[in-house]
Amino acid sequence: MAEFQGRERTMQVVGRSVQSLIRQDQFANITVSQSLPQYTDLALNNLLYTAFSATGTYIAPAVAPLTTNAQHMVYNPAGSGKLIVPLACWMMIESGTPAIGGSIWGAITSSAEGTTPTAYTNSTKAGLGHTGTAVGIYDSDVTLDATPQWFMLAAETRLAADVESAGIYVGDMKGLFVVPEDRAFCMSRRDSAAGSTPLYQGGFIWAELTGVAQS
Q: Of 26, 45, 144, 155, which sits 20 to 30 A from 107 (CA to CA)?
């Protein structure tokens, strides 16, 4: 009968070709086990963060195809030593009446911006369940230097309404998007028509992992 040894340890980077014991969590589960909910290990290691518009200026949706306006973004500063992995995002109506139907689009910038993004005025940012400080910077209403490759995250087909907090929540991105240093994950809303001056707030949940993206 074959046996193996494991060791409880926190998440950390292991160099290539470095031999190590199979990693176990604090409950002695091999980390590929599904005995813990999906993001519990990230939460236990204080690697989750969240930010949103709060009382900052709310943003009008786009109607035409998206180009260089990033209505909301999480920026990973140069030299952070981290990878940012978005896990959830949302946009909700705060005032006005949207048109029928809308969609949320995402993008990852492919080059550094000439003007470094900064924290959006009156927005909030915090560790999710802990007091750590995120390296990620939440900014809003940013004009990018170049048009990124936009992709649709979610869409809704509800009737036009002025109900506060109606909107779209995109959860469980499954680690599909990884943001290296000096890049940003962008999110913008596009409505089917202009509506009656709708304005939206937005926000993100993301993980910060130690490491650098492979070239």
A: 45
